Amino acid sequence: MSDLEGAGRREEAVASRTRTLVVCPSPTARAPGDRGLTRSPEARREEAVGLARAIDLDVADSVLVGLAEIRPATYLGKGKVAELAERTQADKIALVVVDAALSPVQQRNLEKEFKAKVIDRTGLILEIFGRRARTAEGALQVELAHLAYQKSRLVRSWTHLERQRGGFGFLGGPGETQIETDRRLIEERMIRIERDLDKVKKTRALHRASRADVPYPIVALVGYTNAGKSTLFNRLTRAEVMAADMLFATLDPTMRLVKLPHGGAAILSDTVGFISDLPTTLISAFRATLEEVRAADVIVHVRDIAHADSDAQAHDVATILAELEVADAADKTVEVYNKIDKLEAGHRAALTAEPGEAGPVAVSALTGEGVDRLLAAIEAKLARGRRLIDLSLAAADGQGLHWLYEHTEVMTRSNDEDGAIRVTVRVPAAAVERVLRRFGAPAR
C-alpha cells in the first residue's frame, strides 16, 4: 500500500468515527427572480448530507433551519444557535456542517457556541476535492483553491502542507496543533502553484494545437455532480473511469476516443461535476482543466432527468458555463436526459419519442438505451459548419488516402471499375482550402 493510499485510509477511518450534524439554512424569503433558490429545501438537505457522506462522515442527523435574515455574528439566529448548541453537546457531535458560506467570524463564533468543529459548504467541497484528486495537477488545483479560502481565516492548521496530499485536515491528522497562518507564506505558495498551473495550461494548449492537425473534434461532457457523466463516458468509450453513485466521484478529467455512426471519431472529455454555489475559488483554480470545455466543439450537457430538481441543476450548470465564458455554449450544446431507466413508463415513453433536430436526447447510461441517438446527435452537431468534399484518387495513391484518413473525416469510400477510389470527406470550413489545394476537387 502506498503512502497516499495509507493516508486516505486513515482519513476514512477518522471520518467514520466523526459524529456529524448537517445544518441546512433555508431562507424564508426569496429575492425576486432568484432562480438559484427554486430547488426544494428537502432536496438541498439531501444534497448536503450527500456531500458529507462523500468523505465518509458519520452523519448522525440533519436539520433544516428557517432563516429570515443572516446574522453577521453567527449567520443563524440567536435562539437557533442556542438550540443547536444544546443538541450538539447532548448528541456528542464532533463536527457541524453548515450548508452555507460562512465568514471566518461566523465560523469561529459558531465553534465557540457549539463546542465542536464547524465547516461551511465551501470547506466541505474543498475537502471532497482534496480526497478525490488523483493527479498532480488536480492536487495543485485543489491546494490553490484551499489556500485562497484559508487566506482570510486566521485559525486553521496546515496539515495539507505537511502531508502533501489531498484532504485538508479538519478531521485531524499530522500537525493538529493550531499554527498561526502566515500570510506571506500562503501568498508565496499560491504564486508557485499558479506558475505550475500556467505550465499545465500551456501544455494543454500545445496538445490542442497538435490535435488541430488531426480530424478529432473535442466533445466535452458537463453536468451537475452525480448526473451520470462518468457512466455515460464509460458507455460511449468502453473505458473504465470511476463511476459511483456519489457526489464528485470524478475530479480529474479523462479523455478517450469515441467512434461516431458514420465512421468518424471525436475525443470525448469527462469533466468534474458542477454544483450549486460552487466556490468561486474552485472555479478559478480549475480553469486550466476546464479549458477543455471552453475549447470543445460540442458540449454534452448530461442531466439527471429523474431528479426532482433537474431544472434547477440545469440552471446552475448554465450559470457556471457563463462564468467560464464559454463562447456560444447554447449553440454547441447537446442536452441529454439521463437516467430514464428510473422513470415511470409513461414519462419515459414521452421522452424517448423522436426528438427534434435541437431537442434533448433521452438515454440511460446504465442500460445503453438511447446511446445510438446520442451519438447521432453529436455527429449532427459536429457537422454544422463543416463541408463535404467529393474526391477521386488514383488506385495507387495510397499516401493521399492515408492523408485523408489522418486529416479529414472520411464519410464514404468506394472503388470505380477502373480502380479509382472515390471518397466523400467532411472537413472544417478552415481546412477546405487546404484539401482543395492538395486534391483539386469542388466542395459541396
What is the strand and helix layout of this fold?
Blueprint: H1 3-16, E1 19-27, H2 41-53, E2 58-67, H3 78-90, E3 95-98, H4 104-114, E4 117-120, H5 121-132, H6 136-150, H7 159-163, H8 183-212, E5 218-223, H9 229-237, E6 254-259, E7 265-270, H10 280-285, H11 287-295, E8 298-304, H12 310-323, E9 333-338, H13 345-351, E10 361-362, H14 371-383, E11 386-393, H15 398-407, E12 409-415, E13 421-428, H16 432-439
Parallel strand pairs: 1-2, 1-3, 3-4, 5-7, 5-8, 8-9, 9-10
Antiparallel strand pairs: 6-7, 11-13, 12-13
> Which fold name fills CATH's third level, the topology of the largest domain?
Rossmann fold
Secondary structure class reads alpha/beta
Percent strand equals 15-25%
Which regions have little confidence, pLDDT < 50, spanning 5+ residues? 154-168, 172-181
Helices and strands, in order, run as: HEHEHEHEHHHHEHEEHHEHEHEHEHEEH
Tell me the overall shape: elongated
Could you give a short account of the major beta sheet?
6 strands, mixed
Rg, alpha carbons: 25 Å
How many individual domains?
3
Report mean pLDDT, rounded to a whole number: 79
How far is it from the N-terminal to the C-terminal residue, by CA?
60 Å
CATH homology superfamily of the largest domain: P-loop containing nucleotide triphosphate hydrolases
Adjacency order of strands in the biggest sheet = 6-7-5-8-9-10
Helicity, as a percent range: 40-55%
Supply the CATH architecture of the largest domain: 3-Layer(aba) Sandwich
Number of helices: 16
> What is the CATH top level name of the largest domain?
Alpha Beta
What's the count of strands? Answer: 13
